[in-house]
């Protein structure tokens, strides 16, 4: 896999810590937790700028980039919290987690991308593994009474997949812009908290450390890594491999003693790993001498070899 794809997958690995750290953060209401952690995530971006080349101040950021970024980060969380308030968590979470499949399918509409059978099958295998994880081997019970909540969860899936795919159309926009997406999300989350929630802060040092961990990694560095991945990585592979997030999250919970291992986890592991490997087949089996040189990443538009094929990009 290309370096950018691996960087993108590191975001998926960091998102695996989300459930454990959120549970350890206590009873902080979701919008307040979002406001605090995205504020920390903003700090991550500001700190990283100290070690990156200075941005070109003459570069104008298109207005649609701001809309895409803020709608992606804040919009996803707003509609996800709304979905959980209006529908059972299992069904709402599963609907929201259709975004990797939507990324894989939507990538076919991107310039320079080609959707192959192994990308689709790999994503479907990942979805099947996610069903096992989310439902814990049980059934699903979609009830018409919760139609609004289900619709909100579907909006989540569309928003995040759209953010990921549309970000690829702006490869020249520096990743440092995510800093301001995080800042806007923190402010909007605070506004929602003040209107919709009662203030409950972390009650101990351990809970504050969990909140700090959330802001530094799954709600911080992960979004910067994801931006690199979707702009310059292989988007089909990254999309299919994103189904590893709920599996890795469950494995983290098992390692922490919060969840118990089971054959269901093993089956999910086989499905998700097999699906990701199938989606990445063309990369894993590609010969180094093929085409004289490997092609440039289609998202970045810069040539690495000479006349190789496009590397593409994906959310794994």
Task: Give a quick rundown of the structure.
This protein has 316 residues and is an all-alpha fold. The protein is 65% helix and 0% strand.
Description:
With about 325 residues, this protein is mainly alpha-helical. It is about 65% helix and about 0% strand. The chain is built from 14 helices and no strands. It starts with a helix and ends in a 32-residue tail after the last helix.
Q: How does the overall form come out from the CA principal axes?
A: globular
Quaternary organisation of the protein chains? single chain
Number of helices: 14
Number of strands: 0
Helix content: 55-70%
> Residue-averaged pLDDT, rounded?
86
């Amino acid at each position: 896999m290309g370096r950018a794809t691996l960087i993108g997958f590191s975001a998926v690995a960091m998102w695996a810590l989300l459930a454990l750290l959120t549970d350890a953060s206590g009873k902080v209401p979701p919008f307040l937790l979002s406001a605090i952690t995205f504020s920390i995530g903003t700090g991550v971006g500001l700190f990283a700028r100290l070690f990156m080349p200075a941005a070109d101040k003459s570069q104008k950021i298109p207005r649609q980039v701001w809309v895409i970024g803020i709608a992606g980060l804040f919009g996803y969380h707003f509609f996800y919290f709304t979905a959980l308030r209006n529908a059972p968590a299992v069904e709402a979470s599963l609907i929201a987690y259709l975004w990797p499949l939507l990324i894989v399918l939507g990538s076919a509409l991107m310039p320079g991308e080609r959707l192959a059978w192994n990308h689709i099958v790999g994503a479907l295998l990942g979805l099947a593994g996610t069903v096992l994880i989310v439902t814990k081997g049980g059934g699903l019970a979609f009830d018409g009474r919760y139609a609004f909540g289900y619709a909100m969860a579907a909006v989540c899936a569309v928003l995040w997949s759209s953010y990921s795919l549309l970000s690829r159309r702006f490869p020249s926009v520096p990743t440092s812009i995510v800093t301001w997406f995080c800042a806007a999300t923190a402010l909007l989350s605070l506004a929602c908290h003040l209107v919709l929630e009662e203030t409950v802060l972390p009650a101990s040092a351990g809970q504050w450390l969990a909140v700090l961990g959330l802001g530094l990694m799954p709600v911080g560095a992960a979004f910067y890594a994801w931006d690199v991945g979707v702009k310059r990585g292989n988007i089909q592979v990254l999309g299919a491999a994103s189904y590893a997030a709920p599996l890795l999250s469950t494995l983290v919970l098992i390692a922490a003693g919060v969840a118990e291992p089971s054959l269901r986890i093993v089956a999910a592991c086989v499905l998700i790993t097999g699906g990701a490997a199938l989606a990445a087949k063309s990369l894993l089996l590609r010969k180094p001498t093929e085409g004289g040189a490997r092609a440039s990443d289609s998202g970045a538009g810069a040539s690495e070899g000479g006349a190789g094929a496009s590397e593409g990009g994906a959310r794994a």
